[in-house]
Fold this protein.
Amino acid sequence: MKKIALLGSISGAALLVASAAGAQDIDWKSELGDHSGKTLHMMTITDPFIDSIKATKDGFTTITGGKVEVDGYGYDALHEKELLACSQNDSSYDIIMMDGIWIGELAEAGCIDSAEDQLASGKPEIFAWDDYTPSAAGQASWEGQRMCIPVGIYYELMYYRTDLFEKAGVKVPETFEELKQAAKTFTDNPEFPGVYGYAMNNKRGAAAGQQWFEWIYSAGGKPWVSNDIGSSDPYADQTPLLNSKESVDLVQFFKDMVAFGPPGVESFAWDERANAFAAGKLAMINDWSVRAQIANDPAQSQIAGKFKAALMPHNEGGKTVSPVGGWVACVNAHGKQKDAAWDFLKWFGSQAVHKQYVLAGGPPSRLSAMQDSEVQTKYPWTEQLFEAQKNAWVEVRPRHPLAFQLIDTVGVDVNKAIIGEVSPQAAMDNANEQVTNLLKQNGLLK
């Protein structure tokens, strides 16, 4: 099984003007068809970038006459809906946005069309595939084929309150131990009333499972035998290493960090973590880059302009391997309006339109957007994103058909250790056994 291994707001009217101006280098009228009377339907996650899509999409209507409707769903619900629709040959949605780790599952089930023919027949300057970060391109690819268009690629960063760090005179942590000590400084400290040191994704299931995969490389470990950074065939030997010393020590670290979080942090997931930081209750968090918008928005944040980003910490003597994830846009294999769907993705994914989408709050997936001075001025953490993409590893989380189930399985045991139901060693011994059995049952491990 050989896989590709690659290393504020703008008003809708203003954005359309900016999009049109930015796209003048391409004659979109000649590049795109007339789709008057058609309405494309897209399903996506309700992450913050859904509003950025909605703010940008009507530029396509101006050019082609075709409308685009966007429906959002929660993480688990979206995964379930996409699989169910595929199994029923449902054509209700023309474009499906998927987490990059679902691509093996949906591609091998015949749910999405490959992008290769479109890329081969289109003008290279329009798709500008080489402008995507390598890990963004990897998230959109499977079994040697480019399947989808990267539009919402995330990198996990550590965010910290600059006002608190300056007052405490604390160094921005680079290692796990420094992170623990910094978190301790801000917790139950009368100089910082109402503030806790840190919060992680500890909730049982997908949240805790993804957290483990996101941190394991920076902890000096790896999830399975052949998944070495830069490997051309990371799925050759999927013998799990969930109960390695590095893994058990990492889970113990997760458990230790609970002491520096607010009440209920054992069940925090993506929203709870981001909202607590924006509310000024936390000195630090690690989070996907798309959610930095929440903390940066004065309308919903108490700390706008008072935080910065840094690379994720690493184990003593190790190095940071930045987690990569995020969303890719794919054409429904059972859709009835494929020409219009590909035209939309060709337009929406182009460099000029992508920049406008990013300025509207969307996560940058292109090198040109990350290095754009206007983008960096509006979203200063973009400079750290550019650094993070340099050391990211696309296979940091499994992306084959069992990815969703595997991550959820690991997350159950990780959470059991975090809440003290079992020891970290016992938890990860069980996780290793469960994942081994699951892989064997599905023919992915001998």
Residues 177 and 316 are 8 Å apart (CA to CA).
